[in-house]
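B., you asked whether I could sanity-check this one before it goes into the benchmark set. Here's the sequence:
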Amino acid sequence: MGAPDSLAMPPGADPRQLTRHLGQLHDSFVSSGAVDPALRSVVSESWRRSVRSGVDPERSLARLPLDDARLADARTTHPLAIGMPVIRRLLVDEAAEAGLLVAVSDAAGQLLWVEGDPLLRARAENIHFLPGADWSEESAGTNAPGTALALGRPVQIFGPEHLLRSVTPWSCSAAPIREPDTGAILGVLDLTGGPEVAGPQTLALVRATVAAVEAELRLSRLTTPYGPGDQRQESASAAPRLEVLGRRSARFCHPGTTTELSLRHSEIVLLLADSPDGLSSAELGVALSDDDQAMVTIRAELSRLRPQLGPVPLESRPYRLPRLTSDVEDLRADLQQGRLRAAVARYRGPVLPASVAPGVERIRDDLHRQLRGRLLAGSDPDALLAFADTPYGREDLDIWSRVLAVLPPSSSRLPEVTEHLVSLDLHLR
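And here's what the prediction gave me:
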């Protein structure tokens, strides 16, 4: 019953038989946590990520972070507003006639537009599939828009491949929309409905529409340097925020919308956010690379970055950003105030793990060392185990040794900890 990983429903598959089979795999995972090898890896890996994020398959519903005012603000300022006429012309009109829904999210998974069949829209509201809802994996579990954002590529999810029980009657196909100049993800285009949405032709249609939207964005740059999201108008919605923990590239949230930056722009924004007094071109060049960076190269990157920052000003001489909130600063505050469990929960992974920029590596190593040091100096078994169970703590002999030292003798995890510690010790020898 296993399907090629890129296809949710291969040609010739029986939707009813596939639904029954996947339903059994879903029930098994929810009851035992065991993943059947017949499940597509894109789904099994997403289930695990979602559960680690705290999603409950039986009880969770997508969060609703955007009220009407913030939603209106986000729609007005988001770069993808330019592409909505193209999406409506190529996809929405036909989707409405076919009884389907078309959704467009920002780079954080927040749905900005949900259009199509009116009756289906009313049904979808029961599972919080509506404008203003957060359909990232961290909020709504495995789903095509959220998983496409997590992986940075097109994704199909068929029925019971969704993690949330309430969403299993639905199927969806989604693909990221990227900024033409930098390749940064601006959001996701999604087509949602019944089993027919999981066919290969549907994903091809979504991809073609995405290509048309990206072409429209590219054309718009010829007439104006900024899209609707770059009008430099201040908004009272929320302070700018940077998220880099465990992420391949940074998520930058500014008033009204969210953008996923390219890796180079992620590095620049992080370095500037970590340097409140600003950095000169030379200092920024040294922090970005061990090689000498030509000043014109730095200036070109900063010029390309500015449109990604929306209304957030980038000052020069030296280069400086206004005060940003960030998950790095939040983690530092947790550590400073002794909130170890909160710190471990916030630490989704090292800072921009794909980056080799010297300045980023310094921030990454310092933060990891601070968290690890506080854990080793403490005696909270729950915080230690939460860290030890992560991919970046699983092979840490000192952490597991500390777990064994502070774990109560009555703990049900004592045999597992002892066995893992012996295994680590043998491996290191």
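One thing to flag: The domain at 15-223 is CATH 3.30.450.40 (Beta-Lactamase). Otherwise nothing jumped out at me.
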